[in-house]
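User: Hello, can you help with two protein structures?

Assistant: Certainly.
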Amino acid sequence: MPAKPQFSPQELFDIGVAGYLQELRSLVRIIGSNTFADLLPLFTHYADFLRCDLEQHFPRDLILKLANAENTIYADRVPEIGERLFNCANLAAACETFNGWTIDTGTLSEENCAELLRDNIQSSGTEPHRLAEIMAVRLNRADAIRVAQISKLLGLTSDSNQYEQLALGASMARRDREGFHRIPGIGPQMPGAAFSSSSKLNFAAKSCDPKSLVIIDNDRNLEQDFEQINRSENSRIQALNLDLYEGLDRLVTAVEQGDCNPRNLVTMFRLEPMALPEIPTFLDKLNKVVSKSAAFLATIGSGNTRLEFTARKAAMNELAAQLRARGLRPLRVILYEQEDPEISPINPIFGVSEFASFEILFCHLSSAVSVRREPSNDEATPDKLSTELNPDLWNSFLPSNRMEMAQGVIEFLKTQKRLTDQPTQMLNLGSGVGETTSCLEKLHPSFSVTDIDQIPFNRELMHKRYLQNDVSSLPFRSASFPALFSSYTFSYLGNSNEVMREWLRVLKPGGNAYFIFHAPHSAYLNTAREMLCADMAKDFFKLLPNFPGRDFADLYEWFCRQNFAWSMAFKQEQQFLSYAHEIQICKHLVEELADSMFSTDEQIYTFFENLGTTEISVNVVDKNFTVQPSNASRTEPIVAWFVALRKPTAVPV
């Protein structure tokens, strides 16, 4: 590994000052851009913007607009929408660099940047050598925030609390943990003060951690620090002071033994070529410790010489080539000015060379990666409902007439005067791929719906505002949404009182909630029972326990080999997979969930009254998808329960 240059305390201080001046001048350019006034409000609640409003500001097809045929984005030659993206990422980086500063954006200019910096240095009262260390930490974290926002604004990564992260060559993980997951914020100088693109603004960055983190680095100077991490973090964060390959082998063992979850985010900031002598071997080992939906992100710095930078570029080229050879499509973002053969230094577009990332490589590892871990007793096995099914099949056993269902709900709510034409942010809990959401927004345009479910995110498949998360533990502040909706989800969670309390927690006081529930003797469940009684279903469940695979890969061909009738019944694999998924859901609903479903309207009234809700309306959905009061006379089984209620304004739930 190349030797790190030794700087004197004064040189370190001078480098920090140069970095801060560069970030201040970058801020001046952002303030003077056409995008600043529009971007500034996003930073008042930045995490909510990423979760709920990303598509309104950065379109879904942004990568297609910015990347060339080689799937590479050059930051120095992007159209206006690309400048907007990089301005937002740099504004986020400024929140870390100037964390705790108040800056008068109306008077800040190129001419007074040095004066502002000098005043802040003097007012800090900190010794230069200590200040140099602080500036270095913040500039490192600021660069990581910039990288993180580029990936998030492009829709490549999302909320930190869903990530089981692996940080490689991470030292103390200041970039991977402290930088990548921090939440930037900008606010007025004081509550009630002016907040505009020409007022005094406070800059801040808030700590946020991934769900779990494993660090691998072989720096022997970090032994005591790593020991302290392993003692104090209660296994949520583990640090391995090992060679990269040895550390990955150790992690493989932990994953296979069930002591560690597979990683769904791998970061490798400031990649060193010497750390990856054999990239195919590295990817083979990595494949054994990551989940099917894992994201991989690597960056390179400038190195100490032009030769070192050339070696870093070559390593990124080979890494990208090896990923493509495995059927993947890595994205590269070039963050340095294109080279002039006559000029030796390579200049970063953002920041200073000592701290800046010069290139980002991002790749969704997706189906090309498999986790080689034996399932534990309580995990999905071939004769149980699998949570790893194709996401486009997840909604297969729902009423096909989603539009009619949504139309019946909307018409009923209008007659009950439970809808408003005012813009309403609504959270759809257990949304699937968002087909019902699209229907609701089309029928009632005032709804702006955010979907949340555990299905791995697919930008092309999902509704435009989608968050992958456990729906029983929501990542939102209390009273975040004025409306909630959920369709055929609550029964899968056991009609849990605790889950419903969690849902109602994020509903604003006075807000409305609309729920469609399974009914145990509905036409919906009766159809499931009929399907299970058919000879085809009996044969399916007779054969399935003998299937040697762990997911649906090769299931169709295997069934056809067992019984020729399966190839006659299903001419295409997709048709068979849809049936296989549907019939397992039928079995799950009828045999495991039906007993916990609401069977009477009295049960529903009592359930929600005990939770303190008001204006409870319990209704049924008939076969024509018309919503009627539950006490209305009927001769045929219902399709579902439909419940509307309100959260009281005085006593929160």
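That covers the first. Now for the second protein you mentioned:
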Amino acid sequence: MILSMTKLKTMRYILSNFKLLFISFFIFSCEERIELDYDNFNPGSLSDNDGKIVYQNIDIYPILSVVSTDTPTVDNSIKTGLVFSIDTVIAPAGSTFNYSNFSIDAPSGVISYDNSNGGFSEGDYVASVNVNNAGGIAKYQNAVTMIVKSVPIQINIDNASVDVGSLEIGEIATASITDLSGQGVVNSVTYKLVDAPDQYSIDATTGVISKIQAANSGSTKLTVQVGSNLGAVTAEDLLTINVGPSPTLNFVQLDGTSQLTRVTLSPYTAYKSHPPVLSDMTATSWEINLPESLTSFATFFSIGDAGEVIIIGDANLPEGDYKIGVTPTNAGGISLPFPEIFSIKVESRAKVILEDLINGPGDSAPPSSVSGWSSFVISGTVGDGSTWKKMGNIAGKWSAMRRWMGGTYVGDSDEVVLREIDLSSVDKTKPTTIVFSEVIGYGAAYTNKYDRAFYYGEDTTNLSSGTWSDSEWTAFVGLGLADTGWLGTNWNAGSGPPQKYTTSINLNTISGDKVYLNWRMRRKDTQTGKQNGQWIINDVRIEQPDVYVAEEE
């Protein structure tokens, strides 16, 4: 029994130690272990012309498109991205290239030239580039050469010089090409004329050159350009065209003999020229050619069956000098323009349709003593010596209508003097101008005391009863009461001279066959009392454009 207990204790001891050993083993077996083995990263760097960036030179034709280099190779030691830019491009002498058409793709380094519009002429174009990298900016001098080859095309013409008639129409020559490559690389050929007159054309596909319009005599040289898949070639003065004697055309004056070079007329004058003299051509129709400044008046111009130029009256043409051309067409439909064959000068001249110098018998007489004149008092003291009167010889110089504040007078009246104008024989559609002369004074105190105004209207009924109605009278621009268009005093001790006013009136607004011109003087509302002075009106005129007969020269 005692032995058994001893064995039992021994086994428990062994078991406890085993557990401890097992736990210790487990703990130490789970301990983390870190190893510090790694390689250092080296991005690599570039330096000027170090050979680590390599382009391949390229041979190209100047195709009408974008041409590019290949992508340059980069040394394997360079581990980071690069940024390329163009430093310089050295072009051959006499090149027609455009520097701004060069570009570079910044990440790849591919250099391109946009030759869509041509101009990338033959020769070597040497580009230097800058490369931004981890070590800074490296420059690669003369990194790549773009060798632009000549386009292997020769332009031919079947007849270098042709003689044609002025009115001849049709094919006159044919351009063609030879592929100089010897390899048949040229295709997509197209032909065109460079800066050629409108009388000539070329078939873009066949190269056939045609005369499509009549032409004046003389020699013309045509330049032909050929486009292709490899670029364009130009042959200067490839074809000479000798045009024989051409028809002539001359305008003569209405006498049928004297040459016509210019016609002077008013904006409203009607005119029809003599038929022109056309030689070496029979016209079946005519066309008139106007300058752009007269196109809006084209409906007033026409041309007769014999080529006579016709201008309809009342066109109201703008003043100026204008070149007129005509184009005759023959029975075959061939036209020959004669530009600027003669000129017309539109010149306005004034015509006086009424002039009233206010002459006639009587001095210090009522205005009504002169035909067409009348006067009215609107308000204030009547017959105080300051009323309007017809004067025969003011200061020994002027016969006029005068309002004089002098002697025994109150000077508070508002009075008008009127001139009736008969419009029954006046063309109210024409621009119309009113002109009159004035002497006023004695000094500025007079114009400070009194206002003057100039109106027109059609009805004097209210005036006859001593009433003023603003709705019946229209003030001429700038010449209303207290307006700024009025001039200062000019009495000058009776020496004047008269000062002239010129103002327009639209007679289209007058419904009847009469209009009244109305000169009014009244004391200003802010003034009292009186002031010596006088207002003199004379030489009243109405002017319209003179529709004079056209003058040829």
